[in-house]
Amino acid sequence: MPWKNRAHGEESPYLPLGPFKLRLPFIHYRFEWPDYVQGLLMCAVDLAAIPLLIELLGMPFEAALAVVMLNGLLYLTHHLLGDPVVPGWITPAIPLIMAYVQQFPEGEQRVYALIAFQLTLGIFSIFLGVTGLAGKVVSLVPSAIKSGIIIGAGIAAVTSIFAVGGRFESFPWTISIAVGIAFYLIFSKHFQVIKQRNAFWAFLSKLGIFPIIILAVVIAPLFGEAPWPKIEWGFTNPDFATLWNEYTVFGLGMPPLALFISGLPTVLATYIVLFGDILQSKAIIDEADDIRQDEKIDYNPNRAHLIFGARNSVMSILGPDVTMCGPMWAAMQVVIVERYKEGKKIMNSIFGGSGSFRWGTNTGLLLMPIVSLVEPILGIALALTLLIQGYVSVRVGILEAKSQRDLGIAGIIAAVLAIKGAAWAFAVGIILCFLIYGKNFFVGENDGTFTKDVEEKIG
Fold first, then answer.
1. Rounded to whole angstroms, what are the CA distances from 119 to 87, 102, 108, 317, 343?
2. pLDDT, position 206
3. Domains of the chain by residue range
4. Which helix (H) or strand (E) holds 21?
5. pLDDT-derived band of residue 358, with 50, 70 and 90 as boundaries?
6. Average confidence score pLDDT of the chain
7. How far is CA 367 from CA 61, 74, 227, in A?
8. Cα 366 → chain centroid
9. pLDDT tier, 457 (very low <50, low <70, confident <90, very high otherwise)
């Protein structure tokens, strides 16, 4: 097999396809069974999109499952075409997209709005990938506005859980316990120390949020917040006919042009959040590349834009999805990369790890025992995902600011975004930046707010 003949320091073998590099399992990369098995279980997180589709569009469960399965197949395109990541949703933007789409009456108008939004985002991403303008577009947005958009996305994610009628009211005990344990396992310094000393805790940390989801399966029934799962055997039965006849352009036709225009501010806000994932992807891959000198990893942001842009465009036609198609699933990317760092014997190629994992999640979506196990707590899994993403978004958003004035502007933008939406947030941000920075609108200022601690240590 070609993957066995990779010379030290070279890329994994591939077939060139223009800007893409085709790699097939067993031929161009070794199939990694540990990552495949983990993927079988972690498909539970992919399934958490189903409650959103039911809530937002009124989809039947089986039609929503069809959307998740289509999305799952398109996840495979990243590693197959040369992008060394575990792709996922644009999680921080989900509350923004839901708030935008909910402005329209439930039914055809809301479906049209979602189709137009996802298609616009897809075409915009492809354009940036083809022209190589991705970094330049984001660099033109003032730091205060970028900071406010990302912080606002985090706040919107949290408030969507705790607002009146939100998921916390349905699962207060389960969410409290599950989120508390999840935050300890993921963000606690204490846990980071003990997992270095104990193999069991180290193994648990590599499973991402899956152990928390299994815990929720048990906790929710004990507190009377969800029924015990009824395990069913066999294979799942996604309803593609209902999906395509009632929720896509095949049954409804193309959305009116006005919906493509009205969604532009929220599309731009979503892209700013998405671009943060691109930067994070590159940082994680570069770190792995430094440690694993035996394999050269080619991460190309323009290629990534082409792939997730195409995913969004295709999904807007075949199965519009409020979670959108993002460049990276951060939690699982870190888990795969940490295993990859352990050496060539553990994981021959980064493409073997990321690809095998996504083959695993696709297999899991077909298996009724797995789907039926987690079905009662999908709303809890979604709440957990949004709260973790809210924490990360606020942290990352604050660090986008360069000064105290930036932070002040960002705070106003974030609040407006969470309450009034992206269009209002951009308008308020532009006005505040002009009033406060004037001719330095694009530059802003750097008052040393985020370098003080570093300077003190150096001194």
1. 18, 18, 16, 8, 40
2. 66
3. 29-458
4. strand 20-22
5. very high
6. 88
7. 15, 19, 20
8. 22
9. very low
